[in-house]
Structure formats: structure tokens, C-alpha cells
Amino acid sequence: MASKTLAYAISALILLLQLSSSAGQTVVKGAYWFPGSGFPVSSIDSTLFTHLFCAFADLDASTYQVTISSSNSAQFSTFTQTVQQKNPAVKTLLSIGGGGANASTFASMASQASTRKSFIDSSIQLARNNNFSGLDLDWEYPSTTTEMTNLGLLLNEWRAAVANESNTTGKETLLLAAAFFYSSDYYSSIYPIQAISNSLDWVNVMAYDFYGPGWSSSTTGPPAALYNPTSQVSGDNGIEAWIQAGVPANKLALGLPFYGYAWRLLDASNNGIFAPANGSALSSDGSQTYSQIQDLITQSGYTTVYNSTIVTDYCYKETIWIGYDDNQSVSTKVTYAKEKGLLGYFAWHVGADKNSTLSSTASTTWG
Ligand SMILES: *[C@@H]1O[C@H](CO)[C@@H](O)[C@H](O)[C@H]1NC(C)=O
Ligand SMILES: *[C@@H]1O[C@H](CO)[C@@H](O)[C@H](O)[C@H]1NC(C)=O
Ligand SMILES: *[C@@H]1O[C@H](CO)[C@@H](O)[C@H](O)[C@H]1NC(C)=O
Ligand SMILES: *[C@@H]1O[C@H](CO)[C@@H](O)[C@H](O)[C@H]1NC(C)=O
Ligand SMILES: *[C@@H]1O[C@H](CO)[C@@H](O)[C@H](O)[C@H]1NC(C)=O
Ligand SMILES: *[C@@H]1O[C@H](CO)[C@@H](O)[C@H](O)[C@H]1NC(C)=O
Ligand SMILES: *[C@@H]1O[C@H](CO)[C@@H](O)[C@H](O)[C@H]1NC(C)=O
Ligand SMILES: *[C@@H]1O[C@H](CO)[C@@H](O)[C@H](O)[C@H]1NC(C)=O
């Protein structure tokens, strides 16, 4: 009798362990790294993260295979070992595509079973050969109903392939993630919700680039507003859209920009959010890393403001105005993510926060 009870208890325990491992990640504290940031991989404080994304692998437009460019191969192949020196538990994902990649090539690849297979098989091989724990799709953006349908096929086939590969090799299943638009609705094309829920471990929700001098040049704006009293464009609206559409909250990671945008004010004394402006300041597209902004604040005497209604930081001096996320925006957003039951957050990008100020704030806030 007693041994039977014990046997039941043990099998129940085993089942529980299996369930908890198949249930996936418990939290994602993530960040992207890319070689062009000039930030050495060895300088990443990986103790502040659970997952690090190495960006970007490329999609070959003729073979539809995923490749790593020769200039990136040395840093990519040692990425995992390097970041695991400080944090042996950190998981790494190879990110494919990115904002600079040609979205049409992804659309062509996803449109046929044979080219999807080229993508899938080569991505798995590349991940294994370079010691990554997973793969991350950054197709910016599928933009028609057909492309959304094909994205769904790609994700389902990718999931089946990584499951099969794990089965046949005995290795831990590769993680599958994707970076998507801030909302489940991409200008009236709806992401394939069922495939995303079934086949991805989680989604990185890119809740930033809402306002920038390149596309909203005549007024300043909160680049990554969590709330927006004047429009639908906000992190909260995007997260709500994803959840309403049917992706479980615990498969969503909220994007945090470790950068901001600088505008030129028309009038130095009119320096609030949505103040009249005339394009970018400080760089051609106005972008500034958080570290650059920190230096301006400490060395050039900028005035800093946190707006808790919108959840944005901004700073200004004379006719330069910069919208960005500082400690308060980051901690408010991370608290929001936790209270909403999201899986976590991720940052673009780790090298923009050289002193790990925001990475520490985010990690400490989540707990
Ligand atoms: C993007 O890819 C498509 C199809 O592969 C090609 O026709 C187009 O010229 C490419 N665009 C750029 C900017 O490279
Ligand atoms: C992968 O990691 C293992 C253990 O850290 C190491 O022995 C191996 O050389 C690495 N492989 C590559 C391709 O870097
Ligand atoms: C993995 O192996 C199990 C047991 O052999 C089998 O039932 C399952 O269908 C396999 N899954 C895949 C994706 O190959
Ligand atoms: C399953 O994996 C094995 C080994 O990785 C591979 O040879 C086989 O083609 C895969 N099958 C499918 C259906 O992907
Ligand atoms: C925050 O920004 C909004 C939009 O500009 C403004 O209406 C509001 O007064 C600001 N809140 C504070 C406390 O400054
Ligand atoms: C904006 O700047 C451009 C030059 O960069 C100038 O020609 C134009 O007059 C400015 N517009 C306003 C409203 O000041
Ligand atoms: C960042 O760290 C560097 C080197 O430790 C230091 O000189 C700089 O003042 C720090 N910047 C800020 C804004 O804390
Ligand atoms: C931001 O938070 C960090 C700790 O996470 C702290 O060291 C730093 O002084 C704070 N910076 C500002 C500008 O509040």
C-alpha cells in the first residue's frame, strides 16, 4: 500500500517536472546585442539577463538559407561561451533579419514549403553549430494577409522541426521567439495568433519608435509611451491588442528602448511633450543611445522631466529636446509588465546602456 502511494507520488512528481519544463520560461529579462554597437560581448553584464539575443543572422535571397556574415562569424560563434562566463545560466538566441533586412526576401521565403524548409533546416544547423540555445525571427514586417498566413505556416513548421531535432539528437529543444510589431494588428493585417500561441516560446513586442523626428518631425513626442492620451499608439494599447487577440500574456515580453530621439525645438521656451519642432537634432535621425543621453545630462546640464501620465522621460537644453526612457520609465514599465502577467521584457540594445544603469533598474524592479 505504502509503496504504491510512493510510486504514485513519484510519478506525479515526474509529471509535474515534465509539465513545468514544457511550460517554458518563467521569466525573460532579455536584451539584444549587435556588433555595430561597438560594445564588446565581454562587456555585457550577463548576470542582469536571462536571455541574450545575438543580432543579426541574414537570410540569403537566392538559397533562402540563414547565414552568418563572415565579418560576424568570429563574434557570433563565441557569443554564448563569452556571456556564459559571467552567468552560466543565461540562454542565447540567434536573431535573424532585423530592421535593415529586406522584408520581401522573408515574404518570398515564407511563401513556399521548400523555401521555408531551407530557412528552417539551415537556421537549426546554424544555431547548433554556434552554440545558441534558440532562434529569434525578426521579419520587419509581414504586411499583407497572405504574408501573415505564410508566417503562421513558417512558425508551425519551425516548431515541428525543432521538436523533431530535439527528439532525434537528445539535445534540449531550441527556443523559438520572434520580434513583432507593437500591436497584433499591423496596419489592418492581423498576425497569425493561433500559430504564434502554439509554436513560439514567446514574442518580443517592439513597443517603441512611436514618435521620432524622422516621421513625426513637426512636434516632439514620447518615443515609447506606455500610455498615450492623444492617440492609440502606446505600449499599453499594443499589449492589450495582443492579449485581446488571443496570445497569452505569459508569452509576451515588453520592449524597452535603451535609446531616445532628439528634436530641434522651434521655441526654446515651449519644451513639453508635443511641442512644435523642426526635425532631428544631434544626429541625422536624431537617435541617441542612453549612454550618450546620460553624458549630455551630466556634462551639459540638460533639464530632465519624467511624465508619469505617459510614462516617458525627456530632457532639453535650449532648442534641443530628447525623448527617452530613464530609470523611472523603465521601472514603471517593468512593474506594468509584471502586473499584467507578461513573461518579461527585453531591451534594444544592451550596448546603448554602457554602465548597465537601465539593465540594473529593470532587473531589480522585476526582482
Ligand atoms: C528586396 O528583395 C526583393 C525580392 O527579393 C528585390 O526585388 C528587391 O530589389 C530588394 N530590395 C532591396 C532594397 O534590396
Ligand atoms: C560550444 O561550447 C562548448 C562548451 O562550452 C565548446 O566546447 C565548443 O567548442 C563550442 N562550440 C563552438 C562552435 O563554439
Ligand atoms: C518525438 O518522439 C516521441 C516518442 O518517440 C514521438 O511520440 C513524437 O511524435 C516525436 N515528436 C516529433 C516532433 O518527432
Ligand atoms: C528529424 O530530424 C532528423 C535528425 O535531425 C532529420 O534527419 C530528419 O530529416 C528530421 N525529420 C523531419 C521531418 O524534419
Ligand atoms: C504629461 O504630458 C501630457 C501630454 O503633453 C500633459 O498633458 C501632462 O500635463 C503632462 N503631465 C505632467 C505631470 O506634466
Ligand atoms: C525647418 O528647418 C529647415 C532647414 O533645415 C528650414 O528651411 C525651415 O524653414 C524650418 N522650418 C521652420 C518652421 O522653422
Ligand atoms: C559610466 O561609467 C564611466 C566609467 O566608469 C564613468 O566615467 C561615467 O561617468 C559613467 N556615466 C554615468 C552617466 O554614470
Ligand atoms: C538609476 O538607477 C540606478 C540603479 O538601478 C542608480 O544607480 C542610478 O543612480 C539611477 N540613475 C538616475 C539618473 O536616477
From TrEMBL:
InterPro entries: Chitinase_II/V-like_cat, Glyco_hydro18_cat, Glycosyl_Hydrlase_18. SMART domains: Glyco_18. It comes from the Eukaryota. Residues 1-24 form the signal peptide. GO terms for cellular component: extracellular region. One of its GO terms (biological process) is carbohydrate metabolic process. Pfam families: Glyco_hydro_18. Belongs to the glycosyl hydrolase 18 family. Chitinase class V subfamily. This is GH18 domain-containing protein. It comes from Carya illinoinensis. The lineage of its organism: Eukaryota, Viridiplantae, Streptophyta, Embryophyta, Tracheophyta.
